[in-house]
Amino acid sequence: MTTIQVHNTLTGKKELFVPVNGNRVLMYACGPTVYDMSHLGHARMTLVYDVIQRYLRFSGYDVTYVRNITDVDDKIINRAKSLGISPEQVAREYTYTFWHDMHCLNIQPPDFEPKATEFIELMIQFTKELIEKGHAYESRGDVYFDVASFKEYGKLGKKTLEDLLVGAREQVKSQDDLADRKRNQVDFALWKSAREGELGWSSPWGAGRPGWHLECSTMTKHVLGETIDIHAGGEDLVFPHHENEIAQSEALHGKPMAKYWLHNSFVQVNSEKMSKSEGNFTTIQNLLGRFSADTIRIFALQTHYRHPIEFSMESLTAAKTALGRLLRAAAYATPAEQSNGAGATAGEAVLKQNAQQITRATAESLDPVNDDLTKQFRKTFTDAMDNDFNTAIATSQLFFLSDKIFVETDENRRRGYATVLVQYARLLGLTLSDTRKQVDDATTKQIVDLVLELRNIARTKKDYETSDLIRKRLADAGLNVMDTGGNTTWEQA
Length: 493
Ligand SMILES: [Zn+2]
Prior knowledge:
By secondary structure, the protein is an alpha/beta fold. It has helices spanning 40-58, 74-83, 87-104, 120-132, 161-170, 212-224, 238-253, 284-288, 293-301, 313-330, 335-338, 346-355, 372-386, 391-407, 411-427, 441-460, 464-476; strands at residues 5-8, 13-16, 24-29, 62-67, 136-139, 142-145, 188-193, 208-210, 228-234, 258-264, 267-269, 272-273, 309-310, 479-484, 487-492. The longest helix is centred in the C-terminal third of the chain and has 20 residues, at 441-460.
């Protein structure tokens, strides 16, 4: 039944997608390490795999999609130290922030969202078994994976074990303060001993915490199984994170960890990767103050997931203008198709929209026009998505159909085209809810400042009737105006 081609990092080729077990698709994407606000780079990753899992469901697969939360990690511990609070508090706070951001972006919740801290016992068990099999060793309270014991090491990142071992030997040992604990510098930690006063769980090797790579291997195994269909993440995870996951899981189980490895490219700012460490990031909340979720989605999906996106406010503004065309075209759909339905809360509306998604099998019967135009549109759209999820072409098809809607004079046909437009936009997670009449925060501030400027002009002219009326009306709207020392400020009551 399948016609989908996916680019597999493991083979470096585009391959026909054939799940391991019939119609079931087991999919795991590496989730966030919750130690700070999410930025557009994180949003791109979750958005890409949100669209891919939606498209696999559209294609009739029985998908189980897992995205984890890394809630124990050095970054969280360091952040906790700098804030003077516990690592648990940091993780909890930024887990909530992440959920909020994803919800605002209309990213469907995964079927399971395991947290690393819920799997510590199983991680210890995983480590024990690797030691028993001769793939890991204890060293002063730490446990390391013995990279030389896994002959296929480097197969994902396209590096040879020999080169890595030689490279590791040549590295100055003082660059790695744990070097004297390892057999080979390329060996990586499965278990890290807790230092004085640090977070730690008791283990056969003393108090400590799991290594990041071990977290994902263990959660993949226990939530989905020993071999899954798709393992995904950002391209910076290929080496060493996913390479190490493969080493741990395949050394222990003796079978492939995942059949297909998918990796998305970065968001860049002036050709540099957007990241926390580069300090060139824009938080999702910041962007959502100025742009709708649909705008951010269009912006991200106009580029194929394996290509970098160059971020700028200008390109987001261009996406906003482009989205305006889709919104105008979608407005021709019947109210039931394009709106949320009266009385529904925003949350209910999204749940309903997601539940009403068309499938490959129902697309034709739910196409109210089914003429040459919509047949061609549906084919081009699915051909593009079948070709390694080419959302760039799929979104361009939405614009193509919009242009046809604008010039169509037959009302029924126009309504039908608009219905098809909305159906396919939703496959990409676009709500096409008309937000054009909503005013963003920056604009609101400008308007209030303008009103206060007019009030000051009235006061200068001793027109106190008008200035008092403005103050009262602003108070009715929930804004307190304060005049102090010749300055006027305002705040929300
Ligand atoms: Zn991972």
